[in-house]
Amino acid sequence: MKDLAFQGKWRAYQQKILDDLANLIGDDSLHIVAAPGSGKTILGLEVMRRLGEATLILAPSKTIRDQWAQRLRAMFLPANNAEPDWISHDVRAPSTITIITYQALHAAFSGHTSEEEIIDSEEEHSDGARSVEASKQQAEKARKKIIAKLRDENVRTLVLDEAHHLRNEWWKALTMLKQALGKPTVVALTATPPYDVDPQEWDRYQALCGPIDGEISVPELVLQGDLCPHQDYVHFSLPSALEAQKLAEFRAEVAEFIETLLESAEFKQAILHHPWITQPIENVEHILDDARFFSSMLIFLNAQYVDLPQSTLDILGVKAREIPDLTLEWIEVLLNGVVYTYRDDFEDAEPTVRYQQDRLREIKAVEHGKVRLADPRSVQKLLVSSLSKLSAIVDIARLESASMRDQLRMVILSDCIRKDMLPTGPADVPPIGRMGVVPIFETLRRSGLEVKLGILTGSLILIPAESKVILDEIADHLGIGAEHIRYQQAAFDVGFLSVELAGERSRNIVHMITELFGRGGITVLVGTQALLGEGWDAPSVNTLILASTVGSYVLSNQMRGRAIRVDPQKPQKAANVWHLAVIDPEKLEQRIPLRFGRKSTDRKASDPFDTMTIDLGIDVDALKRRFYAFEGLSFGEPPSIESGFQRLMLGTARWDARGIDDTNKMMERWAIDRKSLKARWHSALHSKRAIARMQETLESNYIPKGLVNWNTTKFLLAQSGTLAGLILTGFFQSLRATHIRTLQQLEVVLFVVFALLAIYCLPGALKASRLLLRNGSLEGRMKQVGTAVLEALHHMGVIRSELEKVSVEATLDQNGIIYCRLEGATTIERSRFLDALREVLVPPQNPRYILVRSSKLWRWKRVDYHAVPSIIGRKREDAIYFAQLWNRYVGDSELVYTRSAEGRLTLLKFRAKSFASAFARKAERASRWE
């Protein structure tokens, strides 16, 4: 460790952590959360150096593993030094510094014989990890042997890179190792902590990594100049003609099937004679177990103009006019119950049920024993992997190439290689029928674009033949002789060479191709998200196209992070990140009606929460989910920094063919104006607050209301009437003072009555007035609900910050959306609070406890329901405490345990109310720079 010395200059956040290292690492752990490209690797190496003890570094992939060794040589050792012999890549032969993957440790502890048994998953149907088979005795023997060697080497520091991967099986091996080494110092580094896991899994994660000691967001790093300005763009497209035909055929078959189903008197009779319909009271217990199926039968019969008895509707607590319209989703629920789940209940109608099942199979609307009419897997796959995305990639490459010219450094990430689709010769030009690395490469090669194309995957590397000279120079600089590199001319094009490195030197191949890319030997590089999507360090990337179908929070953020790093060679760098989305034309043109039969008489309420009310299909839905994973610059004026799809400002876009083209052209105009992008970031980053930062909030279009107002009105009217009576009595007194004695008796009676009434109403009026003052506005109501959640979580110990130092803040925007956040708490406390608050506001899943709020204004009665958050409802005493807080801050309610027969009936009515509601409750977590 004495030979190591940092050769560069520390970034602001790195220096702050290093200056306070002694205090931060006091609990034998350092847990840092920072965005991709923020320099976590360098920070981890410096912490390791300062601790000065033998270290085991673990990374999630071989690419990232090799980069640790490269950073160590480049930034901590004299120039041109070869890799020291005290660095090992084999946990079975550890040294002063041992750098391996989590997979390697897991395999070694399991008794696997190979050193690196798991490769990056780059082929379809590969899960990225072969099963590790070994007997328990062999595994125990291997584990003890490895631990003994690590102890002999006196390993006292564990560095966990991209620690969010510890949610996988690997954490077990690491936990055993940590215990065996006797509380070593753990340095955990990640860009994406697993905030979305349940509390038990988070506790496990935190037990290994320690509490979070420092967190820095992407906007903060852009503000400091440690990440470059960047923007997300979406290229929309329609499916190819063949794909559109397949979609139209499937949807036409579905529409025909539904039309026939609705005309089937036999099927209608089968539903009418189901015991839940004929004898609902006797079957309440079964109905409680599956409220959705019972609801689907009622909705179907209502659409068939069957007048349902009120006794049946009373089980759901709804009136006939409140029954929802029959939609494709409700038909799915109904058919799944009839054909599969409750088939035995339709024994008398077996021929009819069998006929419908056969029809569903004929139109391929059955998958793994489940009816899928809206978006079956075949439709999902067709849209997600649409070949129109290949045309979109060519359009983007042409645009960016014309704009950036020789400065272009574009990376395109896909899921699979599809090596078998490489042409076998110059005349072999087969049609391209699937998405993947090779299909993308071939599409670009055939397009005639003047770019330098290359491929970088774990098993296939292609470079332009003209760039061989540059790659040889890079190899020579690394001490790799020509005899260790194998070039082979591509059979299909003399302009390309395949590249392989022999033996141990193969570890350098990613670094070499990355360097070639940085020097301009490749300007458009196609690779897999498995190899390059996480941890790959290529600061020169200024354009990224995400052609991967991955939509998870972690991987989406990691892939996007490849483009936003600063480039020391190009200090003015601004990056474009392109997303691809295919619109479902069948939903767009509404060729399948969304409702059938009788329509609801209720008008659907407008919803300002949704900026894109039209359904564009499942591929766009996946893209919306992806956008919740990261913060970025809005397209609005003035520009802001926030998470979510709404920042693209597409609410007024038209979604016909011409409108899609207009939207793409708008995106293209923004994309080529990189100078304006930097200015907009500068404007958005300078907040009005003294200390700006990312604020995580809950955005909701709903807040508990109405019931408090009814009670408030009732008491205040009563009190007002009483006061009016007293005033009237006073008037009579004045009349008596003028010697009109005949009213004296009436005056006394009225005075006594109204005085007693005033005394009776005073407590209620005071409470109603207090609630009205406190909850009178939407923001006030949200704050009171949030306060009840906060104090309950603090009482349980989930939030440990002092109550005096934390506060609930709520604001209302011009569209009627309420924003709520928790100030003064830690990151995980804010996350737990927002999750719990969201459960209160959205329709129920399956809560153990619910709050029932009812009020009556003379003849009019209203009932509303709210779920007790699952984290609070696990213990009865916590649920009771939350109910008491709710009564204090929000209004009177009754706590109902839903696992009892009576409680399950109440829950059923809760669900039915949410089914029938024309206004959908929505609450989403989002982040804003404020």
Q: Overview of this structure, please?
A:
The protein has 930 residues and is an alpha/beta fold. It folds into four domains: 12-216, Rossmann fold, CATH 3.40.50; 230-239 and 387-482 and 496-596 and 615-622 and 653-687, 3-Layer(aba) Sandwich (Rossmann fold), CATH 3.40.50.300; 241-382, no CATH class; 696-930, no CATH class. The model is unreliable at 115-120, 125-134, 601-610, 706-720 and 771-776 (pLDDT under 50).
Instruction: Give the fraction of residues assigned to helices.
Output: 40-55%
CATH class of the largest domain: Alpha Beta
Spatial strand arrangement across the major sheet: 8-16-15-9-14-10-11-13-12
Q: What distance lies between the first and last C-alpha atoms, to the nearest angstrom?
A: 42 Å
Q: Judging from the principal axes of the Cα atoms, what is the shape?
A: globular
Low-confidence stretches: 115-120, 125-134, 601-610, 706-720, 771-776
Q: Would you give the CATH topology of the largest domain?
A: Rossmann fold
Which CATH architecture of the largest domain? Answer: 3-Layer(aba) Sandwich
Mean of all residue-level pLDDT scores: 83
The count of DSSP E runs of length 2 or more, i.e. the number of strands, is: 25
- Tell me the fraction of residues in β-strands, as a range: 5-15%
Give the domain tally.
4
- What class, by secondary structure content? alpha/beta
How many helical elements? 35
Radius of gyration: 33 Å
How can the largest sheet be summarized?
9 strands, mixed
